[in-house]
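#onboarding

Welcome to the new folks! Below is a worked example of what a typical request in this channel looks like: someone posts a single protein sequence, and someone else replies with the predicted structure as tokens. Don't worry about understanding the tokens yet, we'll cover that in week two.

Example request:
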Amino acid sequence: MTTATDTNMLPDRFMRAIETGDIQEVRACYAPDARIWHNNDGLEQTVDENARVLAWVARHLSGRRYEIKSRHIFDGGYVQQHVLHGTLRNGKPFSMPACLVVTVTNGRIARLDEYLDSVQTQPLRDA
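Example response:
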């Protein structure tokens, strides 16, 4: 079992990797067989599929910054509420609140369930 102490640094490392567009570091945060699920489509992604999405986001949203609203770390994972901020390619500001429920095994993300409002993603998809 992964303890809260083991999990403590992973969320910051993961968020920083997404902010900087470091897809290799994002991959290193995931267990090789991790699954990523989003409430807006109900599908599970592999690490490779998620890496492609995050690389696309990095190309279309500059100045990415996570505003952490709350984070609760517990044995076996964490729950985080945040707002992703950035600038769209058309120069307009972008903000999207989300919630992550993360299972951590052996210091890496084994499962990530992301809850977001799909309406909030529309400006990013349109830009």
